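Why does residue order matter? Because the sequence determines the fold. Keep that principle in mind as you read this record.
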Amino acid sequence: MGSFLKYTVLVVTCLCCVVSHAQLTFNNPQVYTTNNGLSQSSVYGILQSRQGYMWFATGDGICRFDGREWKTYRNNFTYKGKPASNLYNTALYTDSAGSLWFSNSSGAYYIKPESNAVTYFCPNADTAKFFNHIIHLIGIQNGNTAWIGGNGYLYKTNTLTNKTTAYNFSKYVYKQSTSISASLFTNDKIYLGLVNRVVVFDIKTGTFKSIKIEGNEMFTPLDLEYCNGKVYLSSVYGLHVVNEDGIEKISEVDFPVMRFFKRNNTQLFSRRLKITLSNSV
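Structure:
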């Protein structure tokens, strides 16, 4: 399987969001589309697992590429006759066992390396409270701790034992809007992007702090990223930095700043925007 580690997979629909063609050089790249492998042209997340597979979260399933062949995983989970979504607008993560983790509007899921099945994962004993809410897989900590947000709760789950601790953040939201639009996981904090605010969870103390966005009730974060010692937030109104006492706009742009891509610890990229950061920003 190591032979296909040398492959570079170029997804045209994502590449234009990262950097301009002048900043990347590919030697004889192979382009993959819905005509030769991808299940859907919208790609939201990309990950290479330690087994060497390239994984793609798409609008119609999770695609796996081994350098030669493609396989598409779609879930068949239903709850009370209601089918789960196959639109995976999500980041991808792996745990210490090599399982691939992802989420969508129907819940959280994983695929074990020895399995071809998509397994539904519900950290809440009451499936009805978890299924078909907007679920956000935030990250995997130390290889076997999954952080999952949804329906007003932040769940800390051991992926080996399924032992789960739930933290309620519903009292910190705006007008009962508990949907997480963006998230960021750092060594000691979790940032949740919600309507009108960012809620910060301190992992060590298990406490929440709400940072309101002044002047716009319906402001919704689109992405959060840590770079150069600061937390940056993107929105349809431009670029912002999240401080302890508020959220400050630092760009005056006439177009939305969408999802971030971090090239190194001094540069962020977004659609039509290259952001070079310094300590003075």
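Confidence is low (pLDDT under 50) at residues 1-24.
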